[in-house]
Design brief:
Blueprint (H helix, E strand, L loop, with lengths): L2 H48 L8 H7 E9 L2 E8 L4 E7 L4
Antiparallel strand pairs: 1-2, 2-3
C-alpha cells in the first residue's frame, strides 16, 4: 500500500468513525428520552390507579398513550386491561356490587 492510498483509506475510516460516534450519541439520547417518557407514563398510571374516579378525561391524550383496551369478566367482576403503545400493561380488576 503506497502512502497516498494509506492516507485515503485513513480519511475514509476517520469519516466512518465520526459518523458512528455521532450515531451512538443519537441512540444514547433516544434511549434516555424513552426511559424518561416510560418513567413519566408509569407515574401517571400509578396516580390513575390511586384515583377513586376519573375527574377529567382527555381522549386525545388517551389515544396517544393507549394501544388498546380489553374489557373482560362477568357482570360482578369486570377486568380492564390497558395495553400502552410502549408495550406495558396496566390491569384493573373491580368487583361490581348491585345496589
Amino acid at each position: 500500500m503506497n502512502e497516498q492510498t494509506h492516507k485515503t483509506e485513513q480519511a475514509r475510516l476517520d469519516t466512518a468513525y465520526e459518523k458512528l460516534v455521532a450515531r451512538k450519541g443519537e441512540l444514547e439520547k433516544e434511549q434516555a428520552d424513552r426511559l424518561r417518557r416510560s418513567s413519566e407514563i408509569g407515574l401517571v398510571l400509578r396516580k390513575v390507579e390511586e384515583m377513586v374516579e376519573c375527574l377529567e378525561f382527555d381522549p386525545e391524550v388517551f389515544s396517544v398513550l393507549a394501544d388498546k383496551v380489553v374489557v373482560s369478566g362477568r357482570k360482578k367482576d369486570v377486568r380492564l386491561r390497558l395495553v400502552m403503545k410502549g408495550g406495558s400493561t396496566w390491569l384493573q380488576s373491580r368487583a361490581l356490587h348491585q345496589a
